[in-house]
Amino acid sequence: MCGAFCDLICGDYCKTMEQTEKNNKTVIGTILIIIAGCFWGSMGIFVRRLGLYGFSSIQIVSIRVTLAAVFFALVLYIKDRKGFRISQKDIPLFLGLGIGSILFFTVCYFTAITMMSLSTAAILLYTSPVWIMLMSIMFFHEKLNRRKLIALILAFAGCVLISGISGEGMTLTGLLVGLGSGIGYGLYSILGTIALRKYSPYTVTTYTFVFAAVGSWIICRPGDMFNKFSNATAPVALIVLCCLTALITAVIPFLAYTLGLESVEASKAGIIATIEPMVATLIGIVVFSEPLTVMSGIGILLILSAVIVLNLKQKV
Fold it and tell me: What is the reported pLDDT for 209?
């Protein structure tokens, strides 16, 4: 009798400890995704600085992903050299992550910027949580509960208000390209979750960016890019800027986001990451003295509300 009672108590204790550990991992994962969004939000600073050297958008993308691949490879070499081993049958998965997601969404996004207003392109990019949620339901059988739906609506509305409501110059081609950026952006969460079932976050990020870098060199006009490096008046400062761009806008955020995906559902992670435009707006205000409009202020509050709703313990 006493033995059965002790087993019951121990069983309940173990379950409580497991749940506590799971909750702690979820909290840490959420914080990592928020950190990723904050670092992504700083991208405008580096893109504008590199643009002053005459690099095109695609060339900036190539610089970013190539150096990021080098950084990730160094981290993987230090952390776990065996992590360089991947199965041949998983190469299509990493091709999907590197070219189908990272490179595809970036090219689509920058193309959309040339075809429509920046605000409209940003809104179409941040349809990504919708695509993540739909793909998560389809592939991972995640449940679409009321809390996720409310958070999704709040986050998307916040992105719309921050980016500005505009449809100037919209064409069917532009719409499809813009939606393509959102789908490609969201695809990282789905394919990344699948890859993490077999490989470490360090292996996933390394091979993702290696394939993205290889793909980028096909379209970046490397000869022209090298000429701009050789003709730079301050080449050392340019190299430092390029390294910082890769480290701050790619290495740190993508590693943090991938680590976060280990304990946070893909659909939830996609919504939390929408703090990126909020951070970008705040940086624009502080660094570039851009005005804070009433709509942007409301949008920031809506995005913060979405993150809070997702992390409420009680059911909504």
Answer: 96
